[in-house]
């Protein structure tokens, strides 16, 4: 006799609560109330006649029975997702929906993408560059909501890396550094030391995210008087600011990783330090249960690309 399965919603509620070990976290992930999660868990316990959680003053603890079944349940959800994908894409190329922060897409991903396309010609990429992939005001909620609502396969998020319900791999840390055309170092006036910035036009990357360093921060860290720190030209997109720097229009304070390819090509350089670390990094994020080959291959490819990128020494880094 085939045993009747518990309701799928009850199993999902249990699995989410088992990862978060609290009702509030599971409720936020599944877009329901904590009371609804509690009701689903009660339904599951009554259906199985097994207790799955010990209720603690702060949070939950798995029972021994729940600990034994959780890995198998998670594998089951992964298989369900893969089966659904196969039904949707029968006799079609694999499709991958990728969302990324605009600057990362333009300055880091695009120059490398032809390599991925050669390796995986059977994958159709749908690339969306969106500011929603940048955490703002110390909150990941907006980025995560976008990933869930749009059913995104892979996202490149610039943030803090805490994304419950998702698999997360850190790509790299970033620093704010002075960036300019190499020709400025021997120009008139020359740009040999940080003090020389007093005689040069300042370029500003005003990309909207919490923790973006300004020239005021940099001059304070360098312990020098650079004059007015707001003078110069301001840009709301880093791509424009980097192009202005490459065209010898001034010295830019921006993220090192965005300029890395132009630095390797000799179009830009970091003339001196210090380098200011940011409290955000770039992360590749995908749904926890998604083990689709196209998704896994893309994530592994981008991690390999990061590992293959030739490192450079940040002048004056601390």
Estimate the global geometry from the Cα principal axes.
Answer: elongated
How many helix segments?
A: 11
**Average pLDDT value?**
85
Order of SSEs: HHHEEHEHHEHEEEHEHEHEH
Rg over C-alpha atoms, rounded to the nearest angstrom: 24 Å
Task: Please characterize this protein's 3D structure.
There is one protein chain. By secondary structure, the chain is α/β, with parallel strands linked by helices. It folds into 2 domains: 8-87, Winged helix-like DNA-binding domain superfamily/Winged helix DNA-binding domain (Arc Repressor Mutant, subunit A); 94-318, D-Maltodextrin-Binding Protein, domain 2. Helices cover 40% and strands 20% of the residues. The strands form 2 sheets. It has an 8-stranded mixed sheet with strand order 4-3-5-10-6-9-7-8, sandwiched between helices. The termini are far apart.
What's the gist of this structure?
The chain is of the alpha/beta class. The chain has helices spanning 8-20, 23-30, 34-48, 64-88, 102-109, 113-119, 141-149, 215-222, 238-246, 256-264, 293-308; strands spanning 53-55, 60-62, 94-100, 123-129, 154-159, 166-179, 202-205, 233-235, 251-255, 276-287. Strand 7 (202-205), helix 8 (215-222) and strand 8 form a beta-alpha-beta unit.
List keywords for this structure.
318 residues, alpha/beta, Arc Repressor Mutant, subunit A, D-Maltodextrin-Binding Protein, domain 2, eight-stranded mixed β-sheet, two-stranded antiparallel ribbon, 11 helices, 20% strand, elongated
Map the helices and strands:
Layout: H1 8-20, H2 23-30, H3 34-48, E1 53-55, E2 60-62, H4 64-88, E3 94-100, H5 102-109, H6 113-119, E4 123-129, H7 141-149, E5 154-159, E6 166-179, E7 202-205, H8 215-222, E8 233-235, H9 238-246, E9 251-255, H10 256-264, E10 276-287, H11 293-308
Parallel strand pairs: 3-4, 3-5, 7-8, 7-9
Antiparallel strand pairs: 1-2, 5-10, 6-9, 6-10
Helix pairs in contact: 1-2, 1-3, 2-3, 5-10
